[in-house]
Amino acid sequence: MTNEFVKIEKDRGIYTLIINRPEALNALNRSVFDALESFFKENLDNFDVKGVIITGAGEKAFVAGADIKEFLGLDAKGGSELSKRGQDIFFMIENFHAPVIAAVNGFALGGGCELTMACHIRVAGQHAKFGQPEVNLGLVPGYGGSQRLIQLIGKGKATEMLLTADMINAEEALRLGLVTHVVESGQEVTKAMDILIKIASKGPLAVKQSIQLVNAYFDKTQDGFKREYEDFGLTIGSEDSKEGALAFVEKRKANFKAK
Ligand code: DAK
Questions:
Q1: Which residue, judged by its Cα, is nearest atom 2 of ligand 1?
Q2: Is the pTM of this model over 0.85?
Q3: What's the sign of the alpha-carbon dihedral 249, 254, 255, 257?
Q4: Is the CB of residue 2 less than 8 Å from the CB of residue 35?
Q5: How far does residue 38's CA lie from ligand 1's centre (Å)?
Q6: Is the pLDDT of residue 135 over 80?
Q7: pLDDT one-digit tens code per residue, 25-63
Q8: Distance between CA atoms of 145 and 85, rounded to whole angstroms?
Q9: How far apart are CA 107 and CA 116, in angstroms?
Q10: Helix (H, G, I), strand (E, B) or coil at 17
Q11: Which residue's CA is the closest to the ligand 1 atom numbered 45?
Q12: Could you read off the pLDDT of 228-250 as tens digits, one per residue?
């Protein structure tokens, strides 16, 4: 499930994945992708996982991009295959049943910014910096960044960021809606944990379907409104919704079972 490049910690059902290559500013190499892929694949239907935090080791970087040294020499076919694999892993994160929060503790550049955007929620430390500097390398983003940046901050600013490679700071990211919280540096994981502990008390199936409904809005093959009435039926037919209503009437905390 893990390797030396991604450390995993567990607390009250919340898993913190720490990308652990501080000497390379936590750049995403194949081993990091392997570890991310196996964690999310192995826990696809595991409701014991209540939430996930992704962060970077050290104080300087969340992830400073794909490992530039690793993609030297890739040809068009190899590059495209690597990009597709990264996209598939990021889709797995985006569609994970439990919330995934990026605790952005420094540089989030290129593939690092793309990783934050595949997460459901982003919390930034005051010193965090975001950017898509691929054009500096004669590249376009390869892990969904050209699409998710527009979804999150709109076409105008996304185009400017993609074309200039300029970084934005945490306050600007908050103003643009790229992140939802800016906290004192060092408090990113604590804030992410607070949010996830709150969500962990909710109905797990309802949380899963809410994530899917948000994603359905951006999926051109789905009708989000149709999906919503279908999912409403699904959740109201669940044992958890009966427990939720009963707990309300009996003025007690609901004991959800993800059923
Ligand atoms: N890859 C590999 N090593 C990196 C790195 C990266 N992305 N970013 C930093 N490092 C390494 C540096 O090489 C340096 O290592 P040593 O020289 O000490 O061995 C160490 O981390 C510390 O970095 P600096 O000395 O540069 O630190 P500074 O504080 O001076 O600068 C910086 C921090 C973040 C501004 C700077 O490191 C920087 O500009 N880093 C590169 C940012 C960047 O351009 N990232 C890549 C974005 S493009 C693909 C799919 C996707 C992509 C590509 C291909 N395919 C499917 C083929 C996506 C590409 C990207 O992510």
A1: 67
A2: yes
A3: positive
A4: yes
A5: 24
A6: yes
A7: 999 999 999 999 999 999 998 999 999 999 999 999 999
A8: 14
A9: 11
A10: strand
A11: 65
A12: 999 999 999 999 999 999 999 99
